[in-house]
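Hi P.,

Sorry for the delay on this. The queue was packed all week, but I finally got your sequence through. Input first:
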Amino acid sequence: MKAVQEGIFLSVCPSHKYKTNMLMIKFMTPYNEHRAAYQNLLASLLESGSLLIQSRSELEQRLAHLYGANLGVSVRRQGNYLEFTLLSSIVRNDLLPQAVNLTDEWLELIQDLICNQAFDDRVAERFQREKALLLQKRHRQKDDKQRQAGVRLFERLYEGKGSDAFGSQGNLATLEQATLVDVANEYRYLLEEAQLHIILHGVGDEAELTQWLSSWQLPPRHVEIDYHQNYLERLALPFEVWEEETVGEQTNLMLAYSFPPALTMERILIAATANALFGVLPTSELFMSIREQKSLTYQIMSAIDFQRHLVLVSAGVANDKGELVTAEIQASLQHLMQTLDERQLEQAKMSLFNYEVQNRDLQETELIQVFSKQMLPKFDLSLANYQAILERITVQDIVACLQTWQPIGCYLLKGGT
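Then the structure:
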């Protein structure tokens, strides 16, 4: 990783493994729910053009001309921070006919999208169109009852805790009221103050990329980002069940367990393995007991959020089974602690390792690994270390981990006529 100037970092990860070059440009800022809303709208604007590119269709034509290059802009909450990321890939120049060089045109296109935006009457129509489309997407999400159960649960769990209840999309009310001036201010903030990481995976020249980046004429920035301390305060709440009636044919359940912060690779992998045994794998306790043996749910699974120190169990159940399934989930956790054996654990460890191997064999994953190693220098993120830690995990480790999980809330979004 090379510091081009304060707060701006450039990396080239040489590789001939894939037929494409992949470029990641990531702006990083402290999180708040209003900034997240503005950045999502800004991402839509970047994906729809610039001052020179007037529409999404025109941008798609430009990408098609570059031998089918692709490009996307995303916004993601990562603990206490917000990541605004442009990711693009193009076929490597050394695989093209000698007379063809698309890399320069590709980089010019990316620079145009990032640096050549306006927020005045020239883009007012495009702004309103993209805002309307984004609002339609947000309102359609309310039809996803399982997602809404999670949103409602977070609203209860994080009541009075400001931004903590919000995710990557931010505050809907802020989006509804957003103006060109709001998005212009956020755009300037990203270009002038956000920490910036540019990583190329594939075949590229660092000196040429440095020169390209210098043409952006960006100022130094002084924001500090610490991913080793990137987590929210652990919730310690008495268990409570909330109910709400809605239109639908089933009840959507979301139950949260809180666990102590996992601050080392070993603790993270123990918790991830425990969660896999509980509700991720096809042979998990929740699936085999509640779904297969007792037929109490249409679907059930668990997920883990290390930034929030939460395990979240989601399920779709019959409208008269919500309370019963809530109790069965907690009984299943106790049953797993009492019955877990070496065979189950070894099968889970094998499944997790095989998934990790397959997942890492992707160019985007390899690029993200480069970024993660930069942000978490104290962690050994190698596959060899992952395997070594996984092999050391015992049944006692898993049971001890599960014993720390505390139920803190359950939301039942009940269907009805």
